[in-house]
Each structure stands twice: as structure tokens, then as C-alpha cells.
Amino acid sequence: MSLENIQTLKLTSLIPNDENQFQVQYGPELTNLVLDLHVEKGINIYENIKIKKFEKDSIVFKGKKKLKSDALILFPSTVSPKTEFAEVSDHQFEFDNAGRVKVDYFQRTDIKRIFAAGSCAHTYYYTNGTGHIGDQSQACYNQGMTAAYNMLALNVPWHQIPFTCTEQFGKVLQQASSWPQFDEVHIEGDLKEWDFIIYYGMNDFVVGAVGKLLLQIS
């Protein structure tokens, strides 16, 4: 994610887009905690500011304010899959708005004996029926394995729990499951001490969790 790239590339400023994907995924509590950590490490955060144009050595905001820059790196909020070849094929696949091929729980497309998995597929997670895009290496691996099973007609749905982790200036967070939306957040532990688990709920069910990894990176 772009927040990890900030520290790796030793950038000094961050301008979140209007959607702020981190907040959409994790809510304001965790987002504010992570952004505060970046500010503490000397990163300037520019929020709620509209960009008017880019110049050779600066960014011009609406209102004529300028930010001098030695380099400008744009991080996309999502990655578009390379599925153009499927759009012009003889088969009429069903795509989502981002161009991913829609598949069912078994990684099957709507074309018989054709499967899709990973970042090119919009998969439905068997345990809660929610849509999932392959943006996690572990999930992509399991989806590919699920497709292989079902090429052998074993009728095995994608059921493994997706998980990933992110490292922010030595603070490691691990995420279990994947959720497109939530209507409840329950926090156990101490956010300020980075010793917590955050549970995300939807319709009175826990759909995922984020917490501190027990072994921190020094």
C-alpha cells in the first residue's frame, strides 16, 4: 500500500485522495492512528485539499497554494487487471466495474470449463458471500488452488481465510479475513500503545479483524 511506500522511499509528504482507501477499509480509528505515526516520523499529511495541476518542481493546489517537490509519485487506489484479451475473445465474460472477471465460489466464470483467480478475478467468499478482489498474495494462491481443484470437478469452494499484514515504521499489523463494508467496530486493548485487536462487524456478525503482530520489527 502507499503508506508503506512512503517510508521505503523516504518521502516527506502524503496527499490522500478523496476516497482514502485505508479509511474505507479500516475506519477512522485505525486510520488516524497510522497517520499520526507518519506525522510523528516527519511525514507531512495534506488532507481535504484539491490538486489543481502538477508543475515541473511543484504541486499546485486550488487556492493557489504550492508545494515544492523534488519528485512526485502517484499511487493508485486500485490496480486494474490485464483482462483486455478476454474482452475481445469469442466468449462473453461478465466483468465488474474495474475490469475483473466475475467468478463464483468455485472460481468458475460464466463460461463452462473456464476459471479465473487472483487479481484478474472478482471472487465471492464462500463463508460470508461477499465479493473479494485478489489483492493479497495468500488469497490469490488459495484461489488458484481452488480453481485447480474444480478443474478436476471436486466442487471445492474458496473457503480459506484471507490474511495479510502491513508494516508502518516498525509497527506490524495483521489482518484476518476481508470485508467490503462494516457497520460496527469493536476495539480491545490500547490503540496508543499499539497493543490492540479491532473487530469489524456487519449485521451482527464478525467479518474480520486487525491487530498487532506479536513479534514486532525492530
TrEMBL record:
Keywords, ordered alphabetically: FAD, Flavoprotein, Oxidoreductase
Keyword ATP-binding on entry: no
InterPro entries for the chain: FAD-oxidoreductase/Apoptosis (IPR050446), FAD/NAD-binding_dom (IPR023753)
Cofactor: FAD
Superkingdom of source: Eukaryota
Any one Pfam family match given in the protein's UniProt record, by short name: Pyr_redox_2
GO molecular function: oxidoreductase activity, acting on NAD(P)H
Name this protein carries in UniProt: FAD/NAD(P)-binding domain-containing protein
Organism: Paramecium octaurelia
